[in-house]
Amino acid sequence: MLTIRLSQVGKKNKKSFRLIISEKSRDTFGRALEILGSYNPHNKKLVAKADRIKYWLSQGSGMSATVNNLLVANKIIEGEKVRASRLNQKKNKNKGKEKPAEEKPAAEKKTETPKKEKPAEETKAEEPKIEEPKIEEKVEKKTEGKVEKKTENK
Predict the structure, then answer these.
(1) Burial class (CB in 10 A: 0-12, 13-18, 19+), 4
(2) 99: how many CB neighbours lie within 10 A of its CB?
(3) Nearest CA-CA partner of 61 in 45, 77, 85, 81
(4) Is 59 part of any domain?
(5) Is residue 15 part of a domain?
(6) CATH number of the structural domain spanning residue 25
(7) In whole angstroms, what is the distance from residue 114 CA to residue 131 CA?
(8) How crowded is the C-beta side of 23, counted as CA atoms within 13 Å?
(9) Containing H/E element for 2?
(10) Overall domain count for the chain
(11) 25 in a domain, yes or no?
């Protein structure tokens, strides 16, 4: 599938981008089918061939989310912006668990009965002391016939 996306050009701390159309699986540093414009993120300047972009979109090519947002912001195409980045799944796991508890309807909150609080002595759980167990093993040396006790901490 053909995709319109950004290809990085320029120096390390002075990046600029080209709008290219290429195969989606192809590397952006490789050969592009066509260069459709350029974007300078430092001064937010977009130079694009609007007629060629509309042509490729009419042929069924897709766009990356960033390119879509750039083209919509500069009124080259019509539509709504899309979310370009997503949060890490590990960070979202904790947020997902908290939301259902907060979204309880008011009717359910009223029907809940308050739980009786236990005395402070019972609520404090005794923390067991963690000591490394000593394991005694008997090891025989065949050459000498002696028995040694070996203690290891695991």
Answers:
(1) buried
(2) 8
(3) 77
(4) yes
(5) yes
(6) 3.30.1320.10
(7) 40
(8) 5
(9) strand 2-10
(10) 1
(11) yes
**What are 75-107's pLDDT values in tens digits?**
998 888 888 887 777 766 666 555 554 555 555
Quote the DSSP letter at residue 141: -
Check residue 132 and report its DSSP letter.
P
**Whole-angstrom Cα distance, residue 103 to residue 134?**
51
Please list the residues that pair with 23 across neighbouring strands.
2
Distances from the Cα of 140 to the Cαs of 135, 144, 145, 151, in angstroms? 16, 8, 6, 14
Q: Which two tokens stand for residue 1?
A: 């599938």
Across the strands, what pairs with 17? 8, 39
Identify the residue with better confidence: 118 or 88. 88
Q: Is the dihedral of CA 47, 50, 55, 61 positive or negative?
A: positive
**Domain limits for position 15:** 2-73
β-pair type (62-63, 2-10): parallel
How much of the chain is in helix, strand and coil states, percent to nearest 5? 25, 30, 45
For residue 78 the two structure tokens come to 């019509």
Q: Please give the pLDDT value at position 29.
A: 84
